[in-house]
Amino acid sequence: MPFLPTEPRRRAPLVAAAVAVVCAGVVAVALTSGMSTGAPAPTRAAAVSAPAAPTATRTPTPAASPRAEDAVDAPASTTVAAATGRTVPVSSTPGGKATEQLANPQASGAPLVFRVTDQRDGWVQVQLARRPNGSTGWVPAASVKTSTTPFAIVVTESTNTLDLYQAGRVVDSYPVATGTGGTPTPTGRFALTELLAPTNDGYGPYAYGTTAFSDVLNSFGGGPGQIGLHGTDDASSIGTDASHGCVRMRNADITALAERLPLGTPFQVR
Description:
mainly beta; eight-stranded mixed β-barrel; five-stranded antiparallel sheet; 1 helix; 18 strands; 3% helix; disordered N terminus
């Protein structure tokens, strides 16, 4: 079932790959799926124990204004860009010298697809799957094919819920598990980068990779602490703060999302 950026309800041929995200203690052997012929690299770093998260001291501020980063990021339409060649050059400024070349497909075998954040004179600004969270770069418009998606997902940690938006309106809401106090799920505006069909235990039937990375774990389970959105074999954890930073869903729920959401879909944690 091909999974194309212009047809978000269809899925692409699956390619075997090894993947590790922050919420599993072993490297996950998985099948990748996506919207074209490339994908983000699987996690690589060896698992290590992470230092305890520092305890922040905060002084309450009466009648504090809502934080801008907590505003819902669910546009009615989002532009996504799928790589068309074997590599995509990335520059720090539009028209600038390339600082790196991203492979397509990436090491996991999934397609290289970006969320677009700006466009200017033949250049496309895209969100990158790397630290620090929120990193962007500019790629030539000629190196990608753009399309749009009406979908967005918003995770609210205080309620452990995930809202699915379509055309700017909530169409479904799901209970989820998020990170514990020591390994919180990072907040911010991210994107889905790959779709995996794991063959190892723990992830459920599907796992999305994202552009988010743990603020606490720099390496874990063979990977660099990349945050995933996936199913779980522990349904009792849903609705609680239970993970190492990933967002867990019931297996039926992640399957429903896997059948609808294209890569590049906005993924917000607030």
